[in-house]
């Protein structure tokens, strides 16, 4: 099944309000899903006999933000965070990349982390991938069974892969930089 075929199937199943974007010319063709539909779409992709995406290869977060004002003027995107899901069907021998996009901050005034529903109930391995994305990019996965840091210590402040992250000069008496 090609990315275009899969896109048509998903639009037919969920509608254009839930399947909101695509890029079939990218090296890894992708389909964008509305954030509130990611769990339903994921369940469909895993369990439907035409798709059978039984494996979540990877889930990662990407911060689309340019902190340099000169470069930001040429930046072709509104600042946002994307969660990217790489899926494979071993039995049907096809793969696809699925994305959801959210604002960098849930509430810009308080810098609250953006919410994305957890897909750990669909693919168990998402438990670890979502924890890593939470830890490093700062995405709050709603309904995750154990959302806590996985790489950084629990008392670490901030999320190291955010483009505006400022590394602390000192941590527990150890000087950095």
Which oligomeric form is depicted?
Answer: single chain
Note the main sheet: 5 strands, mixed
User: C-alpha Rg, in Å?
Assistant: 18 Å
Terminal CA distance reads 49 Å
Descriptive notes:
The chain has 177 residues and is α/β, with parallel strands linked by helices. It has one domain (3-175): Beta Polymerase, domain 2 (2-Layer Sandwich), CATH 3.30.460.80. It has 4 helices and 9 strands. The chain has a 5-stranded mixed β-sheet, with helices on one face. A hairpin with a 2-residue loop joins β8 (170-171) and β9. The mean pLDDT is 93.
What distinguishing features does this structure have?
177 residues; alpha/beta; Beta Polymerase, domain 2; five-stranded mixed β-sheet; 9 strands
Question: What secondary-structure arrangement, pairings included, does this model have?
Answer:
Layout: H1 3-14, E1 19-23, E2 30-33, H2 38-47, E3 55-64, H3 69-72, E4 80-89, E5 94-102, E6 115-117, H4 126-137, E7 140-142, E8 170-171, E9 174-175
Parallel strand pairs: 2-5, 6-7
Antiparallel strand pairs: 1-2, 3-4, 4-5, 8-9
């Amino acid at each position: 099944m090609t990315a275009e075929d899969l896109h048509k199937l998903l639009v037919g199943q969920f509608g254009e309000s839930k399947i909101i974007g695509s890029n079939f010319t990218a090296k890894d063709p992708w389909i964008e899903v509305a954030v509130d539909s990611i769990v339903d779409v994921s369940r469909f992709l895993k369990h439907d006999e035409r798709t059978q995406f039984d494996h979540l290869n990877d889930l990662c977060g990407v911060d689309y933000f340019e902190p340099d004002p000169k470069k930001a003027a040429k930046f072709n995107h509104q600042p946002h965070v994307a969660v990217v899901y790489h899926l494979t069907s071993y039995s049907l021998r096809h793969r696809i990349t699925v994305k959801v996009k959210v604002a960098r901050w849930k509430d810009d005034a308080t810098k609250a982390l953006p919410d994305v529903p957890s897909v750990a109930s669909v693919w168990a391995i998402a438990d670890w991938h979502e924890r890593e994305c939470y830890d490093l990019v700062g995405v709050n996965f709603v309904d995750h069974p154990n959302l806590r840091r996985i790489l950084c210590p629990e008392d670490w402040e901030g999320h190291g892969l955010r483009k505006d992250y400022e590394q602390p000069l000192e941590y527990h008496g150890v000087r950095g930089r």
